[in-house]
Here is the input.
Amino acid sequence: MQRFKALVASQGQPRLQLAWQELGEADLMDGDVVVRVSHSTVNYKDGLALTGKAPVIRRWPMIPGIDFAGTVASSSHPNFTAGDRVILNGWGAGETHFGGYAQMARVKGNWLVKMPAQFTPAQCMAIGTAGYTAMLCVLALERHGVKPASGPVLVTGAAGGVGSVAIALLARLGYQLSAATGRTAEADYLKGLGASEIVDRAELAKPGRPLAKERWAGAVDAVGSQTLANVLSMTQYGGAVAACGLAGGMDLPTSVAPFILRGVTLVGIDSVMAPMPLRIEAWDRLARDLDLGKLAAMSLTRPAGDVVALAPQILAGQVRGRIVLEME
Here is the structure.
């Protein structure tokens, strides 16, 4: 029986315990596809899981990691055969089902997306759930009529994973972009991805008016809380805001004014349980619209063993762009 390494999270006192262990295929959870995992990544949600800052893990023990990319080792699912290159994002991986921080995974074939031919497994994890979520946000803005000609678009949490990919995508599509960040030292990085204006995060983090001056035709928000409330108050008439994160908090101290006086749309973006047709559309669009040079510029490759140390860094806003983890 093939043995492999996995990061196992278990309940402990006073906090969760994390340890790399050697497991066998028989230790994996139920599923109809076994995947040799070559790469994973670290998303904000992974940071919450690994530090115990939020109850992301809901079954114990657990192999964390909400993403992975790899090659099918064996399959009884009709859509997959040995040798297929596949991606997994979400579906409870790393929460209720063993996830991506292991060299092997057994999952449901209905959770897997076939890897676009344009991407390597490492590039897929440079994108990861953060980049796939950014693409879902872009699709939402397009469906709500936010076009490049509509006016500038704001991206909050701009130097993070979602923000970095969102800026690269929107710039490639011809949008004028404002990037909100608390890391002023990243201005050149963000402009290199395609932002034309840098907005100080502090400007959006303090309490504001229910309606403020109209500034943006749309926005991608990964922060939530007071930042999202201010973004809504500054969105132009008929604009749309795609909300996908909670780095600033889960609350939303706003009023109905942007919705009933300016016709603003707040679009919720869920990447975990998104239906398969939407996932496939998002990955197809990523393959078409994401500049691989910019993806490389925002990505850093690290060995899987570094993931525990990286978790608190991503929560503290100390990680720029995306991190690829080599699992092999």
